[in-house]
Design brief:
313 residues, Alpha-Beta Plaits, 2 domains, DUF2179, membrane
Length: 313
């Protein structure tokens, strides 16, 4: 990752960043004071460590949250960038200030409701702050840095650390609290993923069909999606290994909401079409997601007009 050398103050104090940060911090505060802290329920990462240490030492949670996040913020400052570190520091300090001056009574004593809604709200808060360009929990900074130094993935590193935290909760509190805390963590992680990545998660849909020309036309002209075509071979079946023929593998980027519609339309063309679906983490460039007015399309059209080139040439 290329580290930012200058602090982008206009980005930090943009309206979008401010709103995401404020709503994210408020959501996290409600989760912590209204659900998690009164019942010693843990989330993963620095938040979980702070709750655990507060129970042992009686040091206020807000002090511990800032203290334990400082090393990770310094790591983010050195390895990611100054703007990121400033955003993260503002978010954490704002959370501690609001929790210090605003008291929220516990909403319920039902442990399942606490785990589910506490996890949802803390995950929503973390996700909104991430969308603003910061973090409320520095553990992911360390996981990102450790990933580059080891053979383990970010998810494996975070899961290992959180497993140790929940094990500590079992000793300090009890097994039941540790199990409910894992439910909090799972709910928070899923909510954060949805907030950051969106409900329309992008997916690579690949189709192999004997009617590939009609399938290409269907996806491009009827569904308005861009495609990539790979050249391959079809056949090599058990008992008929030597039987093979060339084929086109049509791949397009879709959302989960579009997969079923494209499959149904393709099966009407070729009932024997073969599909396989792969999740992808990020789409950038090209025409990955259609909008009402696609700036990429406008750029191409303008470029063609200025060059006196007709589309298709």
């Amino acid at each position: 990752m290329r580290k930012s050398k200058r602090i982008n103050w206009s980005s930090i104090f943009s309206l979008r960043s401010i709103l995401y940060t404020i709503f994210g911090v408020i959501s996290a505060m409600i989760a912590l004071e209204g659900f998690m802290l009164p019942n010693h329920f843990l989330d993963g990462g620095v938040t979980g460590i702070s709750i655990l240490v507060e129970a042992i030492t009686l040091i206020p949670f807000t002090y511990l949250l800032v203290l334990f996040n400082l090393p990770f913020l310094y790591l983010g400052y050195k390895k990611i960038g100054k703007t990121f570190a400033i955003r993260a520091l503002i978010s954490i300090i704002l959370l501690t200030i609001l929790m210090h001056f605003i008291e929220i009574p516990a909403f319920t004593e039902d442990k399942v409701l606490i785990a589910v809604f506490g996890g949802f709200l803390i995950g929503l808060g973390i996700g909104l702050v991430i969308k603003a360009g910061g973090v409320l929990d520095g553990m992911e900074i360390m996981a990102f840095y450790t990933t580059r130094k080891s053979a383990f993935s970010t998810a494996e590193i975070i899961l290992t650390f959180n497993g140790l935290i929940f094990l500590g909760a079992a000793f300090v509190f009890d097994i039941e609290t540790a199990m409910y805390s894992f439910l909090v963590y799972f709910t928070a992680a899923k909510t954060t993923d949805y907030v950051v990545d969106g409900f329309e998660e992008f997916t690579a849909l690949s189709i192999i069909s004997g009617e590939c020309d009609q399938v290409k036309s269907l996806i491009v002209n009827d569904f308005g999606k861009a495609i990539t075509v790979y050249k391959g071979e079809r056949g090599y079946l058990p008992g008929a290994y030597n039987v093979k023929h060339d084929c086109d593998i049509v791949m397009t980027i879709v959302t989960r909401l579009e997969i079923h519609r494209i499959k149904e339309a393709t099966i009407k063309i070729d009932p024997h079409a073969f599909f396989f679906v792969q999740r992808i983490k990020e789409v950038k460039g090209g025409i990955g997601k259609q909008t009402a007015k696609d700036p990429f399309e406008d750029y191409v059209r303008t470029d063609l007009q200025e060059s006196n080139i007709k589309p298709g040439e």
